[in-house]
DNA sequence: GTATACAGTACCATTATAGTACTCTTTATA
DNA sequence: TATAAAGAGTACTATAATGGTACTGTATAC
């Protein structure tokens, strides 16, 4: 249920690593090695995170990436939004009756989904990168699931 | 970000429809027509919902499906869990260091993910099928996103 | 006994995701 | 000012999950 992609997982790993030394400039190669994610994938993620305004980049010989804000100013919504795309909902109605809100009950449902969405959004907003560095209060070990997916 | 599949969306549509007449027996065909989802897909979903103990089924000529519990006793976690699979997390560590919790920071992150997971879980648990029948307090219309995905 | 309706399973097509490669631009420094 | 280091941008491919369908089996009312 409710999935978060591998790349987002990596992205959080990357940001958490960089948060260890929050003002430092990291090269893509450094990050790749530290986190254990292949360089091409790492660079791709770093670029995306720059686009999402979570990282600043510096080009040239002594270039690299660094956090755009302090770790406690970066929440998981920011990260997930940057890596998985914008918040949004499907069009109203079913496939058979697109946009036909009056005809079906689906529109009322969609608006209710937004209630849920908001709750999920808030949940993600509450956790910052700074907190992710710390161990959870009650660490629990759940059994592994299939195929490297984070299933919430 | 955080996606809910089309089938889950349909499933909620189906359950919401059946909740209109909560003690009645519905045939798969009836449901299919009412909700506007093709019969094969509808039956697949109905079967899955029976497995998830959200519906009871009755075989034979006068058979059909009905809600296993009252609509206010069925939450969105139940539905989403039934249709998208069990709650769980990936294995600890990165692809390079599977299960190697000490070596990397990822394990601490995973346990923190569970905090988020719990929040999401709670958010879904708070909304019941009974509530889904009602219009939201503040209905908002967000722009449509791509490819029939519910993006939370 | 037969028609109806659900149960179970296995399969195929589509699509999103993950991952990679290649070319271009910027900048420090020798 | 030439060069090498490092990021920017884009486009492509393979894999895997999802969505959708078909087929065979089983129960039950009339």
From TrEMBL, chains A, B:
One of its GO terms (molecular function) is DNA-binding transcription factor activity. GO terms for cellular component: cytosol. Gene3D superfamilies: Winged helix-like DNA-binding domain superfamily/Winged helix DNA-binding domain. SUPFAM superfamilies: Winged helix' DNA-binding domain. This is HTH-type transcriptional regulator CymR. It comes from Ferrovum myxofaciens. The gene is cymR.
């Amino acid at each position: 249920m409710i999935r978060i992609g591998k790349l987002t997982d990596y992205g959080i790993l990357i940001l958490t690593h960089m948060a260890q030394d929050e003002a430092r400039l990291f090269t893509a190669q450094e990050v790749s090695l530290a986190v254990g994610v292949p360089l091409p994938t790492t660079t791709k993620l770093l670029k995306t995170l720059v686009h999402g305004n979570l990282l600043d980049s510096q080009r040239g010989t002594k270039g690299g990436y660094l956090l755009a804000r302090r770790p406690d100013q970066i929440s998981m919504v920011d990260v997930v939004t940057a890596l998985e795309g914008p918040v949004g909902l499907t069009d109203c109605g079913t496939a058979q009756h697109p946009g036909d809100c009056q005809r079906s009950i689906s529109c009322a449902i969609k608006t209710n989904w937004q209630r849920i969405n908001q709750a999920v959004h808030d949940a993600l907003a509450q956790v910052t990168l700074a907190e992710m560095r710390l161990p959870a209060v009650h660490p629990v070990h759940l059994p592994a699931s299939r195929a490297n997916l984070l299933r919430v």
